[in-house]
Target: Putative PTS IIA-like nitrogen-regulatory protein PtsN
Amino acid sequence: MIIADMFPLQRILIDEVYQSRKRVLEVLAGLLADDQLGGQESTRIYEILIERERLGCTAIGKGIAIPHGRDASTLRPRGAVIRLTEGIDFGAMDNQPVRLIIGLIVPAECPENHLAILGVLAEHLSNEGDLEAMMQAQSPERIRGLLIEWLSPLTTPDE
Model:
């Protein structure tokens, strides 16, 4: 798994304005979809994300949500980031509105990678300094750089 490939710049949106969790998940699914497969994949990924939300809210507190899922048709882990100018209700246990959304879709046969990525993200985002760096980043390049730095221990040779 090559972390730099997981978060291309076109999958990182900052200073966005959305009014609902549903809309954020729709946009996130579009970002996570393989551009070459069109709308069908976006719809499938949206359904995967919604199904995961039904199992339990993916908002982890402090204004952060990490919607994620596994997909049999996905060959490599993909990530996307949406940072909102104003928070939205995501159903977080701490009742804080969510402003930072990091989405993941991973191959169904790679549950270890899925859990490892989630664990590293949760660890860094619970660190005040790391969270502040992410929230103050002025460009998609800076956000991508932080993610690569945080997730680099998970890098494995590309297959």
In short: The domain at 3-151 is CATH 3.40.930.10 (Mannitol-specific EII; Chain A).
